[in-house]
Amino acid sequence: MTYWDLLSYDFMQRALLAAVFTGLAAPAIGTYLVQRRMALMGDGIGHVAVTGVALGLLTGATPTWTAVLVAIAGAIAIEVIRERGHANGDVALALLFYGGLAGGVLITGLANESGARLNQYLFGAITTISRTDVIVTMALAAVVILICVGLAPQLFAVAQDQEFARVAGLNIRAYNLLVAVLAAVTVTVAMRTVGLLLVSALMVVPVATSQQLSRSFRTTLGAAMALGTAASVGGLLLSAYLSFDARVAPGPTIVLLALAGFVLAWPVGIWMRRRRRLRQPFPVVPAAAHQETDPHPHQHGEDCGHMAVPHGDHVDYVHDGHRHAPHGRHYDEH
Description:
By secondary structure, the protein is mainly alpha-helical. The chain folds into 2 domains: 3-266, ABC transporter involved in vitamin B12 uptake, BtuC, CATH 1.10.3470; 290-334, no CATH class. It is built from 13 helices and 3 strands; from the N terminus they run H-H-H-H-H-H-H-H-H-H-H-H-H-E-E-E. Strands 1-2-3 form a 3-stranded antiparallel sheet, with no helix packed on it. A hairpin with a 2-residue loop joins strand 1 and strand 2 (314-319). Helix 11 packs parallel to helix 13 and helix 12 (217-242) runs antiparallel to helix 13 (250-279). It is globular and about 115 Å long. It starts with a helix and ends in a 10-residue tail after the last strand.
């Protein structure tokens, strides 16, 4: 069997479709998480989603849907803890993350499922994805992409400057919860591609790579989605090619390929920023306009060397201790 014969199989075609949609959706929502300095939120949601997968295995339901529900609940809890900003908020998040992972492993054992079954969701198993899972992945990813692109101005305003967004009339809490829910959905979408433990890398690394080469938010968003798709599809094809000689998992290959893209883009980004500084070493400050005052000539009296002081419609001067008015005007001294 040749490499091209492998690509003609149905399971590889399903895997390619899942890789394309996952590569588009993960960096789309990851761009807003990076902008909000919450790059590791996807990793935390992934830990919580393990419990959802285990509940699906225990109850006989579809693990994807149970993982979506549990991940959304965990994402909302994370956002509420973050919004309140208590001093022990990081401790609460740690308990939530570790509890989700430990609970998932425990419930999987209660369901009499092997660790290998859980590993399909922890580290990804895109080549075993079913037709139903592909349809669910495409539908959920399409929703995430449409919202991230369609509401880009509002989501960017909230992520960049919440005070400005509040003044502009945006519902800050609603948009923050929307981003959290979209992140939870994206985690479950990507769990069969790269796995719950590696999904955060696919959400963050393409965005970091794009930021090295772009300056505007829209360019960063578009480039991150393109890089995420390239890493997903390229990692899947590379792992399939290497699998003729060794057992290479697609999930880690996708993540490592995304990291390789960042390593290549990083020096290019440094070079581009240096060139911009050399072309414009100092910020251009417009010159202040010179304001000219009205002419103010001085008036002098006869046989007097002292300067007259204008005051209203009259000008008087002092000479030898007496006040005089030029032009024939006289004033009484008080």
